[in-house]
């Protein structure tokens, strides 16, 4: 039986280890994690409730090169059954899938308890600095060098301020595997002129470069945030303009008529937060137009440390249908380090777990073939 090392004790790495060990209890598996604790990002996802997946799993919610086998995996993966087998029950709140407890801690505890029961060790505070291949894999860390017959790279991306000192691209450089540079995705927008409305939330229809999202926006000291804004951030380009329709269910004529009938000193207070109403009231021009099409020039999107996920990573075309390298034997990649990103709403976690399960199946097939 091959010695297996998994780099990264995030959602994908931990799930992959569990699936391998379930299928072959004799497997020797070790997980290396750069952070001081495993599943750190998972603990914060979904505002601490852990949005695991989405009822509307469609390929249109994913970016990146998606060969047919990846599409089939995304659509067929049964995440509810997967977690049920691990002891965690889930439920939908609207279209979003959460643990029954609505607590990310429940997901973390279930995954780590399965690791303990299967005798899968996780070594934290162990940052990998380089990977080399010499008939087997040498995994160099700041503390020591490990060797493995089979290596699963589940390091994720540098999004969210959870990254170590060493870049993924540098760590993998000696292997010369096709790798796209990371860029922020699902992040906030910085405005040319931030509005003095920090903390104010509005619901509406938001448009950026002909792409639209309905949802909620949060004004910040640097610009705007919120799920709808993060979705639109993927379509940012130089000199972008954000258009805000605060009353998408009313025509501009209906809004103008309502404002004309208002007896309020600040007519806009009948529709929006008083601070926002006061700001809009003092703008020159058509009051109804400001409510239906507030125009905000965007200077940039926020960088990788503030992003939920990143575009970039391993080129999927360099891997087979089990996410094994076509160049190196027994080298697998899972989760966010692959150049596939999903929308907000559980799509990225869905793929992280699905790719982990598929890689585990690939490793199981190799073990069976080698036993003959």
Automatic annotation (TrEMBL):
Its cofactor is FAD. Gene3D superfamilies: FAD/NAD(P)-binding domain (3.50.50.60), HI0933 insert domain-like (1.10.8.260), Translation factors (2.40.30.10). It comes from the Bacteria. Residues 3-361 form the RsdA/BaiN/AoA(So)-like Rossmann fold-like domain. The keyword Flavoprotein applies. Residues 196-260 form the RsdA/BaiN/AoA(So)-like insert domain. Keywords: FAD, Flavoprotein. This is HI0933 family flavoprotein.
């Amino acid at each position: 039986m091959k010695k297996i090392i998994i780099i990264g004790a995030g959602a994908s790495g931990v799930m992959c280890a569990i699936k391998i060990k379930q299928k072959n209890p004799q497997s020797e598996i070790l997980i290396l994690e750069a952070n001081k604790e495993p599943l750190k990002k998972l603990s914060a996802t979904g505002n601490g409730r852990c949005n695991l997946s989405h009822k509307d799993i469609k390929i249109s919610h994913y970016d990146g090169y998606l060969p047919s086998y990846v599409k089939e995996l995304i659509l067929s993966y049964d995440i509810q059954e997967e977690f049920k087998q691990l002891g965690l029950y889930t439920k939908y709140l609207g279209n979003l899938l959460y643990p029954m407890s609505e607590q990310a801690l429940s997901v973390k505890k279930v995954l780590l308890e399965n690791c303990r029961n299967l005798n899968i060790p996780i070594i934290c505070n162990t940052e990998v600095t380089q990977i080399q291949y010499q008939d087997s894999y040498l995994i160099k860390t700041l503390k020591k060098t490990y060797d493995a017959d089979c290596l699963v790279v589940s390091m994720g991306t540098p999004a969210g301020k959870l990254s170590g000192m060493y870049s993924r691209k540098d760590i993998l450089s000696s292997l010369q595997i096709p790798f796209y540079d990371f860029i922020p995705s699902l992040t906030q927008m910085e405005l040319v002129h931030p509005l003095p409305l920090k903390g104010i939330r509005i619901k509406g229809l938001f448009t950026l470069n002909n792409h639209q999202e309905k949802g909620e926006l949060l004004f910040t000291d640097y610009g705007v945030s919120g799920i709808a804004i993060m979705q639109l951030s993927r379509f940012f380009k130089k000199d972008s303009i954000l258009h805000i329709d605060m009353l998408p269910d009313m025509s501009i004529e209906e809004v103008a008529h309502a404002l004309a009938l208002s007896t309020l000193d600040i007519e806009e207070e009948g529709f929006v937060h008083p601070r926002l109403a006061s700001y809009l009231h003092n703008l020159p021009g058509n009051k109804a137009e400001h409510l239906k099409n507030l125009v905000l020039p965007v200077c940039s999107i926020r960088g990788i440390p503030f992003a939920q996920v990143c575009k970039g990573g391993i080129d999927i075309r360099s891997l087979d249908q089990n996410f094994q390298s076509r160049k190196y034997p027994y080298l697998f990649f899972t989760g966010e380090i692959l150049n596939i990103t999903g929308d907000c709403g559980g799509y990225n976690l869905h793929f992280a777990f699905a790719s982990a399960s598929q890689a585990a199946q690939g490793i199981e097939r190799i073990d069976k073939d080698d036993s003959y």
